Amino acid sequence: MTPKHFLPKLIILLAISLALLMLGSFLGSAGISWNLSDASPTILFDIRLPRSLGAYLAGALLGLAGGIAQSLFRNPLADPYLLGSASGALLGVGIMLCFAQIGSPLLETVGINGGAFIGALLGVLAALLLAGGYRNSLRLLLSGVVISVILGAANSLFTFIRPDLYQSIQSFMLGNTTLLTWSAVQLMAITLTICLIITLLISPALDALALGENTALTLGLPLAQLRLTLIGILALATGCAVAQTGLIAFVGLAAPHLVRKLSAGRQRSQLLFSSFAGGILLLGSDLLARTLFAPIEIPVGIVTAVLGGIYLLTLLKRSQMGAHS
Amino acid sequence: MNTHQLSIYRGPCAILRELNLHIPQKQWTSIVGPNGAGKSSLLQAMVGLLHYTGSISLGGTDLKTLSNKDRAKTLGWLEQNANTHQEFEDCLNVYDTVMLGRLPHQTWLHLPTPKDHLKVEQALKQTHSWELRGRLLHQLSGGERQRVLMARLLAVDAHVLLMDEPLANLDPPHQADWLKQQKNLLVQGKTLVTVLHEIHFALRADHIIMLNHGGMHFQGSSQDPQTHQALIDLFDGRIRLEKAGNDWVALPN
Questions:
Q1: Buried b (16+ CB within 10 A) or exposed e, B115-135
Q2: What CATH class has B2-80+90-252?
Q3: What is the reported pLDDT for A3?
Q4: What would the mean pLDDT of A112-116 be, rounded to a whole number?
Q5: B152 vs A: CB within 8 A
Q6: Residue B137, min C-alpha distance to chain A (Å)
Q7: Chain A partners of B114 at a C-beta cutoff of 8 Å?
Q8: B49 interface with A at CB cutoff 8 Å
Q9: Does B114 touch chain A (CB under 8 A)?
Q10: Which member of A207, A218, A260 has the closest CB to residue B77?
């Protein structure tokens, strides 16, 4: 009964990831070219590879955050944007754009990405403060919703005052993978590594939540510390991904569901697989977004929403039929 | 296990007040009382889930001096009608569920050792649920789940087992099995504390504690006629006790 199928599943997910990355490097709006000498090395190494890697890493961060949110709150509808990070990031971007013309050196060093990151973290912090701590899951979820509404309103005010910024904010909301650079890839790779290591170390204790919080406590688990750590990872991973790619829809919600059957409820595999699934989903969507109507690109967030939505619907339909048979 | 001036709080209000209880070691004690008497709360306070004043000591050591992990290794607790979140599909199989009972013994990496696997196998076999090991917890019937959760409790290998309505959902043959299990556990030197509504099962215990109106009604040996009288008083004379063979049965009046 040891996780004997763990390794094959891991290898399959890795193989899909690698195949998509290869595809991402060779596929471009200039047409498909399998010949390396044909594609200019500059396009390959400076545009396509960082974009593909970056999309994959951002997806992996969102998948991990979504998996944590669903397992921690034991709610299949939880997603990484739930705790106010999305609206916080959006407001951060709005503020940065609004005050960009002032040209203060401080704002310039923070930049739009930094503004999104700080905004996401502050959003989660505000939700935590409003909930009066992290011990009560339901109160935390509700205050996340309240924070989202309030920050969303503030953001609407910005676009109302400065209608010229509407387009930029809208494009951030849809998500964007075209501008990913090597430094963004580096940043996300480091964040993902740190987040994954910590998560994998502490996640087995999450399994005990299947028995209910009280029984988990009587097994001597430090649930409070565990919860705080996981919320921290959730905020960090979401903030990092959102800062680089914008508010890509649905990856965090769908990725954990895609691998739920593979992990047999073991949280260590579930969270690791969620991360892979998120990367695969976002990179796959990115590939579709840039080839489907080439040379016109459609925003990747639209593709993730459609793809993830269709898959979730089939999953739902299948599990319903399973329940009836 | 002894309690001294124990008052148990759920939020700001005291549910049980000034209990001085004696729970003999390596014996079976049953807690009985009408609904809402605070039976479950007493067990929850013992495992540290509820706030209390006064003291609970186990063989001379105050439970508050134990670390969470040591407490988890010493006291095992079986939740009443454990809710397994059926709507959430992240469901463990039976074997992994029982393995959760080994968490207090594992290091921070939580990698199961051969000893953990052995204990899980023993626990599953003792509860006749070894055949269920590959099934998912949320696909089991109520009685099957109760047996698996019992196995989870046994896997902890604690000295003191606190069981809140362990017979819930069990069919008569498995109730009989459960009784046999209790005897085995007593032979192994475990201390058993059960909350039971089935009076005839409660009377199989060595020692009975009766709770009512937020306090202790009576405590004594299950064979003592005084205990029997107190039991009838506890339920306002609405039950009577009759001897059938060697055992006592409770019948509604």
A1: ebeebbbbbbebbbbbebbeb
A2: alpha beta
A3: 52
A4: 84
A5: yes
A6: 10
A7: none
A8: yes
A9: no
A10: A218
Q: What is the ipTM of this complex?
A: 0.89
Can you name the residues that pair with B240 across neighbouring β-strands? B251
Count interface pairs A-B at CB distance under 8 A.
99
Give per-residue pLDDT as tens, B33-90: 998 888 999 999 999 999 999 999 998 889 999 998 899 999 999 988 755 555 566 6
Which CATH class for the A6-17+39-324 domain? mainly alpha
Q: Where do we find the tokens 């039929």?
A: A321
List CB contacts (< 8 A) between A222 and chain B: 68
- For chain A, give every domain's residue range: 6-17+39-324
- Please give, one letter per residue, the 3-state secondary structure of chain A: CCCCCHHHHHHHHHHHHHHHHHHHHHCCCCCCCCCCCCCCHHHHHHHHHHHHHHHHHHHHHHHHHHHHHHHHHCCCCCCHHHHCHHHHHHHHHHHHHHHHHHCCHHHHHHHHHHHHHHHHHHHHHHHHHHHCCCCCHHHHHHHHHHHHHHHHHHHHHHHHHCHHHHHHHHHHHHCCCCCCCHHHHHHHHHHHHHHHHHHHHHCHHHHHHHHCHHHHHHCCCCHHHHHHHHHHHHHHHHHHHHHHHCCCCCHHHHHHHHCHHHHCCCHHHHHHHHHHHHHHHHHHHHHHHHHCCCCCCCCHHHHHHHHHHHHHHHHHHHHHHHHHC
pLDDT of residue B114: 93
From chain B, pick out residues whose CB is under 8 angstroms from the CB of A71.
Answer: 90
pLDDT, tens digit (0-9, with 9 covering 90-100), for A28-80 = 655 555 555 555 667 677 778 888 999 999 999 999 999 999 888 888 888 88
Q: Which residues of A touch B (CB under 8 A)?
A: 1-2, 70-71, 74-76, 201, 204-205, 207-208, 210-212, 214-215, 217-222, 260, 264-267, 270, 319
Token pair recorded at residue A203: 């996640």
Measured in angstroms, the CA of B68 and the nearest CA of chain A are apart by 5
Of A2, A210, A217, the CB nearest to B84: A210
